[in-house]
Amino acid sequence: MLLFAASCEHLVRVCLPGYGLTDEAIDFLVSSCGKLELLDLDGNSALSDASLMAIAQNCPFLQGLSINMCARLTDVGVFNLAAHCTRLTMLSFSNCPGISDR
């Protein structure tokens, strides 16, 4: 993952569903690929709000994020994401018990 992210600074779409990614891997990915517009992280159950904060801080062009089945994420992370990613128009988070519908 580290080698992949380091060599792909112009990526705009990344789909990594169910790869067992960690917060550290997401932090490295988004800090290396700051032009991301679409990110699919479905089923990466180890991710926490730290990943959402890293995305919020490093992905100003993000338009779509899919985080279905990421059970450790919470409303706090989603609120931070929404506050920083002003271009975000699609957010999918089904089967995330820590995220409410408010």
Question: What do you see in this structure?
Answer:
By secondary structure, the protein is α/β, with parallel strands linked by helices. It has a single domain (2-92), classed as Ribonuclease Inhibitor (Leucine-rich repeat, LRR (right-handed beta-alpha superhelix), Alpha-Beta Horseshoe), CATH 3.80.10. Helix content is 34%, strand content 12%. The chain has four helices and four strands, in the order H-E-H-E-H-E-H-E. The protein has helices at residues 2-6, 23-32, 49-58, 75-84, and strands spanning 13-15, 38-40, 64-66, 90-92. A four-stranded parallel sheet has the order 1-2-3-4, with no helix packed on it. Helix 3 (49-58) links the parallel strand 2 (38-40) and strand 3 (64-66). Helix 3 packs parallel to helix 4 (75-84). The chain is globular.
What is this entry, summarized?
The protein has 4 helices and 4 strands, in the order H-E-H-E-H-E-H-E. By secondary structure, it is α/β, with parallel strands linked by helices.
Question: Residue-averaged pLDDT, rounded?
Answer: 92
Q: Into which percent range does the helicity of residues fall?
A: 25-40%
Low-confidence stretches: none
**Count of separate DSSP helical elements:** 4
Query: Please, what is the oligomeric state?
Result: single chain
Biggest sheet, in brief? 4 strands, parallel
- The percentage of residues in β strands lies in 5-15%
> What's the CATH H-level superfamily name?
Ribonuclease Inhibitor
> Pairing-aware structural class of the strands and helices?
alpha/beta
Provide the spatial order of strands within the biggest beta sheet.
1-2-3-4
Question: What would the CATH topology be?
Answer: Leucine-rich repeat, LRR (right-handed beta-alpha superhelix)
Number of E strands: 4
Radius of gyration: 12 Å
